Amino acid sequence: MYETQEELDRQFSARGTVPDIAPFVTAYREESERMAATLPAVRNVPYGTSPDEVLDLFPVPGTVRAPVFVFLHGGYWRALSKDDSSFMAGNFTRHGAAVVAVNYGLAPATPVPEIVAQVRRAVAWVWRNGAAHGLDPERIVVGGSSAGGHLTGMVLAGGWHHGEGVPEDVVRGAFPVSGLFDLTLIPRTHINEWARLDAATAQAVSPLFHLPDRGCPLVLAYAASETPEFKRQSHVYRDAWAAKGFPVHCFEVPERNHFDVILDWMSPDSALTRAALGLF
């Protein structure tokens, strides 16, 4: 598909699309810290057995069964945490939707298949325990950015629900942004220095090849300045979802990049916010 190793690596390089990612990462953390300091929250709740398996929960005050947005952070499976991942909580809770920011182990210490298993456990925890925190387990929407978009796709994938004791329709809507859905090229890129996927594992953790039998409404978005490969990833997943007869909408966000596009979830009038609220 790509003629040189340099071009292949460029296509999968999100960092290469901006001069410096530091301002965006700083914004994630500072805005998330502000949410934790100013909103009601239940923090560092264990959802699994490892120290990395914790989440932060931002309920809607006075609401006993609020829809919930479960956010899976990006960072190419090796960076960021839940502490960078609740910047949308103020906007969403004002609109009546709770927010859960999920932490998971990072590559290479935590292999990508185990990261997938962890975020699935987090969603199962929300389904089993959310009602005690004012959440509606029948209105779980999962979203994520970049690697978090990939993980969103793996939560949508079929075949894992029985093992976690949740229904196949546990996720009622999904919103991956700038996600990766076909990882079969990753073993040939510099990303594999930490992803450490062989060909079989790359296919096993590619959402494109594990579509569910029952699909929920899906919204996909990406920034205008993404590489063609990142845009293609959303397009092929959109087409596969539509081919199964599942509802899907995909759009490009103008004047945004791979890193600042999700900060639009802080704005009540943004296209990302309107699309997310539509899923609830």
Walk me through what this model shows:
The chain has a single domain (5-279), classed as Alpha/Beta hydrolase fold, catalytic domain (Rossmann fold, 3-Layer(aba) Sandwich), CATH 3.40.50.1820. The chain is 35% helix and 18% strand. It is built from ten helices and eight strands. It has helices at residues 5-11, 22-38, 89-94, 112-129, 147-156, 161-164, 192-195, 199-204, 228-243, 271-279, and strands at 42-46, 54-58, 66-72, 98-102, 135-145, 173-177, 218-223, 248-253. It has an eight-stranded mixed sheet with strand order 1-2-4-3-5-6-7-8, sandwiched between helices.
Question: Secondary structure elements and their pairing?
Answer:
Layout: H1 5-11, H2 22-38, E1 42-46, E2 54-58, E3 66-72, H3 89-94, E4 98-102, H4 112-129, E5 135-145, H5 147-156, H6 161-164, E6 173-177, H7 192-195, H8 199-204, E7 218-223, H9 228-243, E8 248-253, H10 271-279
Overall mean pLDDT? 97
Read across the widest sheet, the strand sequence of neighbours is 1-2-4-3-5-6-7-8
Compute the number of helices: 10
Helical residue percent?
A: 25-40%
CATH class: Alpha Beta
| CATH H-level homologous superfamily name | Alpha/Beta hydrolase fold, catalytic domain
**Ranges with pLDDT <50 over ≥5 residues?**
none
Give the total of domains.
Answer: 1
Assembly of the depicted chains: single chain
Secondary structure: number of strands: 8
> Do you know the CATH architecture?
3-Layer(aba) Sandwich
Describe what is shown at a glance.
This protein is of the alpha/beta class. Helix content is 35%, strand content 18%.
